[in-house]
Amino acid sequence: MGIYRDLSRNPGVFRVLFSQLMARFPFGMLSIIVLLHIQLTFGDFTSAGLVLATQSVGQAVSGPLSSRLMGRWGMRRVLSVTSVLCAALLVTIGLTRLPLPVVVLLALLVGLSTPPVTPAVRTLYPKLVPGRQLSALFSLDASAQEIIWVLGPVVAVFVSSQFGTAAGLCVAAAFLLGGGAWFIMSPALGEVQLPPSRRGLGAVLRYPTVVISTVIGFFFVASFAAIEAAIVAAFSVDDGHGGGHGSMESGIVLAIFAGGSLVGGLIIGHRAMRPWSPLLRISLVLAGTAACLVSLNMWWLSVVLFIGGLGTAPVFAAISNIVSSTVRFSETAEAYGWIGTGQLVGVASGSALAGIAIDAGGAPGAILVSAALLAVAAVVAAATMRWIPDLRGRSIEPPADTGTLSLPLP
């Protein structure tokens, strides 16, 4: 654990780590809050799936574009505008009762205005610590990200069950504004200049590692959205009007899942990655998820999801290591933009598929969806092993930007 202690000797690292965690935290809450809010408002999970799917379209468009805009207009300006706009839209959805088509339009705008915090912070990391510490920092970031995607729904369920889903959306907006301001005012954000990309939009997808990371991230995160919806449905409490809300049992199970991921990230995530590492880590998560089909007993679910969670943060750490070691610095922001888009779309898509599965077959249907998505992620990791770098004894700093220099003839 000494490697994590060494990180604290780099000024500003932990402020950036924790502030970006708070800024991104609402997006771990939103899939569940929106699912519950729209289901209670319109009476079915399919409408909620439509809203989440529309939000994912906006996020798919905004991820790479906003990442490139940071190179042109600056990180602080882009992050400030998108944070304020996105928070205002969330409050509007929560506090007004609007027709479904209008809510769908607002959800699209929420996706389009999603702040590009992930590309910004992962572009900063190689400039904050020496190369030998970068793997440990990515491991901590992966653990923090898992808290976002797994612990976020715990907060969402608690606030929604105690104070209502409208309050949940307002809490998410508050995290977005507070965490965003904290991150935006970090001195490191003003010291690191993000260079504009030299190539056209999408050119970074010519790197096989970016495509592999994006696809794996999509299916991997989609599986979490599905299992989270399944756990909420398994312990849902009928409100007497044909709807329901999450109970504290679901919050406990998801918190234990997050605990497993945190432990796994700290003890596994910083280890040197090999080509087969992503497959092994995904398989561990798949085993825990599939075991949920044995019983919906709270304690059984807690045990098997804790075991599955041990592989979760290490997978995210592996994705960051793959990109950082193979993509030039001027293109890392856009690369992480595409990967972040894949993960955010995965959240919405997994929730949408789970909502339909819950309507058709209850919580076990959503668990099957989650396991199937993880199986696809494992197949992709196995089929693309030849392109995944072996990082034993290697630096994972981004390759230097190079270009052609024309010299006059003598």
Model description:
GO terms for molecular function: transmembrane transporter activity. This protein is mainly α and 410 residues long. It is 75% helix and 1% strand. The protein has a single domain, classed as MFS general substrate transporter like domains (Growth Hormone, Chain: A), CATH 1.20.1250.20. It contains 17 helices and two strands. A hairpin with a 5-residue loop joins strand 1 and strand 2. The longest helix has 33 residues, at 329-361. The relative contact order is 0.17. Residues 238-246 and 403-410 have low confidence and may be disordered.
Strand order of the largest sheet: 1-2
Query: What is the straight-line distance between the termini?
Result: 58 Å
Quaternary status of these chains? single chain
Number of helices, counting only DSSP H or I runs of 4 residues or more: 17
Overall average residue pLDDT: 82
C-alpha Rg, in Å? 20 Å
Count of individual domains: 1
Question: What is the CATH class designation?
Answer: Mainly Alpha
CATH superfamily grouping: MFS general substrate transporter like domains
Helix residue percentage: over 70%
Low-confidence stretches: 238-246, 403-410
Look at the helices and sheets and give the structural class.
mainly alpha
Helix and strand element order: HHHHHHHHHHHEEHHHHHH
Shape: globular
Strand content: under 5%
